[in-house]
Amino acid sequence: MMIEVENLSVRYGTAYAARDVSFSVARGESFGIVGESGSGKSTVLRALAGLNRDWTGTIRVGGETVTPARDRAFFRRVQMVFQDPYGSLHPRQTIDRALSEPLLVHGIKDIETRIAAALTEVALPPSTRFRYPHQLSGGQRQRVAIARALMAGPEVLLLDEPTSALDVSVQAEVLNLLSDLQEKRGLTYILVSHNLAVVSHLCARIGVMQGGEMVEQLTAEDLRAGRTKHPHTEALRRLSVELEETDAQHGKAA
Amino acid sequence: MEVVVQNLRIAFPSPSGPLEAVRGVSFTLGQEKLAIVGESGSGKSLTARAIMRLLPRAAMLSADALRFDGIDVLNADENAMRRIRGGRAGLVMQDPKYSLNPVMTAGAQIAEAWRAHRGGTRRQAREAAVDLLAQVQIRDPGAVADRYPHQLSGGMGQRVMIAMMLAPDPELLIADEPTSALDATVQAEILRLIEDLVQRRGMGLILISHDLPLVSHFCDRVLVMYAGRVVEECRAGELARAQHPYTRGLLECLPILSEKRRRLAVLRRDPSWAAA
Ligand SMILES: Nc1ncnc2c1ncn2[C@@H]1O[C@H](COP(=O)(O)OP(=O)(O)OP(=O)(O)O)[C@@H](O)[C@H]1O
Ligand SMILES: Nc1ncnc2c1ncn2[C@@H]1O[C@H](COP(=O)(O)OP(=O)(O)OP(=O)(O)O)[C@@H](O)[C@H]1O
Ligand SMILES: [Mg+2]
Ligand SMILES: [Mg+2]
Prior knowledge:
B: Rossmann fold, globular
């Protein structure tokens, strides 16, 4: 197992943002997390990524138990892409700086070629390289954040709504890119998204959260086929299918 | 309320001369739900923000006409623009956390927006704020009103923005990817709320979204943008039968839940799409 999470709990004051969450992800596998807004999805990712030290339970990465404080080697192995790309990109740093920083931190050479390759990989034109985050569109910023996470060659990527700011053509490119990278480098993914079609496209197994708890784990196959157990899972599935049907089959029904 | 946009152009200076990000966009909007879809970087956000003259400082703006309810947005003074922005038109931006004030609680920001337009006491404003939070489906709205932006989940931040923009009872709502971080249940509720405002109060809506099924289901009309131009316009319900190869391409790259696809189709962009 690449990632094992046992009874992970996170509290803010007296309220639990995550409560006794357990799941595991094999090396080279993708695990999806879905669930209503505020259910604790980002909280779980942030605890895994070492961004929040205030949690209880057990987290193992590559078989080793990790402590709340993490070292540099951890951050080379595990990278996170945030829900809000503005939050992860420094406003006064050019894209070039943002992409070269992880290389400098980890002493990686060939900065020039790697940056050019990274921009191409996420379909950003070379002209964006020396711009600042506010000079890019929302989708372009999100692609910079993905490129940045990939810079130091991580083994695990924690992705929080990585494609929700992207148009569908770029979303398709990014999802294909994530599949290709997984095949080539054997990356392990945890993907948080509210879009069930996106999650089931990339992930074979999915955990459903509600009110801080993981109320169901099921395969993407079962989700597609409607073999759900928990009512929250079914409610989310039904709404996605309804929207797809009215659009794809009848042009417009309503 | 009517919005008129004729031959809108927005450019940015660059070392190799001005770069045109929006190149001659025209449309009018009444009491209806207009969607703008299109590729990332195609100029959707800039087009919508031009109506409120909320553009990056470096932007060079020109148009044959740009009017909000008869007001000439190109030439109006700052005071007139402030009146539009502060109440008559609301903009829900794409990066909610960036546009919220980090040192004010969610409730205080909504209350301020409400009071600026309707007056009333602090207490009334606070009550209205909590009520608005409940309307955008925030559970435990009283507690969430006291949280600061960094204590909100992504979807909560988006909903606080929406509540803040609805507080002054606007005639026009411009919503830039307003529900992209929301799960399907909450998204459906928020769209119902917006629908209600359009129906009951005659609000106009510009919805920028990359979610084609949602737009097709919810809006009346769709503009499809590519490289700074509108390349196709159609009735929302007919989006699935759109003609332009770019729009067709967009429809084909969608992953769908009911059907497993091994690899997603990607767009092969044709340089002629960007040509005049
Ligand atoms: N720093 C904080 N202080 C207090 N409460 C917090 C803090 N951070 C998060 N919370 C609360 O914890 C809960 C879970 O938040 P989290 O961000 O994990 O939700 P989420 O599932 O990612 O939702 P979304 O889909 O909207 O992004 C929410 O109620 C949120 O308001
Ligand atoms: N301040 C700026 N300086 C230079 N170029 C800019 C600036 N702001 C935006 N642009 C460019 O203008 C183009 C249109 O931007 P806009 O934000 O309107 O795109 P969008 O269609 O909303 O895309 P997205 O779906 O990714 O949000 C983009 O190529 C962007 O890089
Ligand atoms: Mg989140
Ligand atoms: Mg935009």
